[in-house]
Structure formats: structure tokens, C-alpha cells
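name: query_chain
kind: protein
chains: 1
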Amino acid sequence: MRRLLAVAVLLLGLTGCSAPPLMCPAIAAPAGLAIDVPAGQFSRADVTACWAARCTRREVELRQTTTSGPTTCTPTACAASAVPTGGRYGFAELPGLPAAPVDVELVFDGGAPRRTTVHPQAPPAGQCGEPGVQVRLIVGPDGTVR
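structure:
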């Protein structure tokens, strides 16, 4: 009986020595395509992305970009306001986007299509799983996409 009690106490002690389970914050980086547009050019984009013999189409609302305004401080806290820059940005979520070449067609506000091939990158994996593959497109003042 003493031997059984000693084994039980030893096993209980060993289970207390293991590392706690990893807690993930359930924050994910979605797979997709970010679009940055210069001041005052467009308000909406239709995105078609094609890879592995399939295409995915998304409508993207282009939202106003902001930057930090002047900072004001009191003895207990500091604050800054968001100041519009005049540019716009949007994000097209594309589940399954590969870290391989993808053909993209962009149509801004129903205008002429712009086509490019992008090379999305997979960010480094964290302890909580694989983040989504992403790519960023920048529209130049002349409308070219890079």
C-alpha cells in the first residue's frame, strides 16, 4: 500500500512539472491582397485573382487612409487623432492564396482593367499556426499597378 501511495504521489508531482499549454490569442492574418491607391483616384475595386486553374473575384471598398495627427499630452496620458491623407486602401480576402505567382486583374470604379502578376509571400509561422499568405499592390499616380 505504501508503494502504491508513493507511486501515486510521484506521478502527481511529475504532472505538475509539465509546461502549461500554449495559449493562442485567436488573432489571424487572413490570406489576401492589399490595395493602396493614391489621393482622390478611386473608391471601389473589383479584384480577380487566378492561380492553379481557378479564379476568385472580390469587390473591395477602398477606405480612406489616415496618419497620426499632432500629439497632445496631459500629466496622465497622451493622445493623437487620425488625420486623413487623401489616399485609399482596401483588402480582398482570398482564402487559399498560394505563395506562388498569381495573375491579378483590377478594375477601379468600372474603368479599364489593369493586369499584373504578383508573387505573394508567406509570413513566418508563429507558435499558433500558419498565417495567411498576403501581397500588397500599390497603384501609382498614373494608374500603373506594382
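note: The longest helix spans residues 2-15.
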